[in-house]
Design brief:
Shape: globular
Structural class: mainly alpha
Helix content: 55-70%
Order of helices and strands: HHHH
Radius of gyration: 12 Å
Largest sheet: none
Number of strands: 0
Length: 85
């Protein structure tokens, strides 16, 4: 695991988009791995909007019926890019 994983985990856990209670540290690990893969693939062309869309896509697929696309995802994307790039 990379240091970025833990930084992103902290951001996602603080956001807690599915409002899981009690939240375990590794609750969103799979989704974070998908985000990191996307960031690595898009690194030179990555934008806040592209990452926002990917975050919404990942959570919509993983938590179908429990997650609705969120405009908060843009703020999360900005935070993630700030710590990763």
């Amino acid at each position: 695991m990379t240091a970025n994983f833990y930084k992103i985990q902290e951001i996602i856990n603080e956001w807690n988009p599915i409002e899981i209670e009690p939240l375990l540290d590794d609750e969103y690990s799979l989704e974070i791995r998908y985000m990191i893969e996307f960031i690595i693939e898009q690194r030179s062309d990555l934008t806040h909007l592209a990452l926002r869309d990917k975050i919404n896509e990942i959570f919509s697929k993983t938590f179908a019926g429990f997650y609705t696309q969120s405009e908060q995802a843009l703020d999360i994307a900005k935070k993630i890019m700030h710590v990763c790039l």
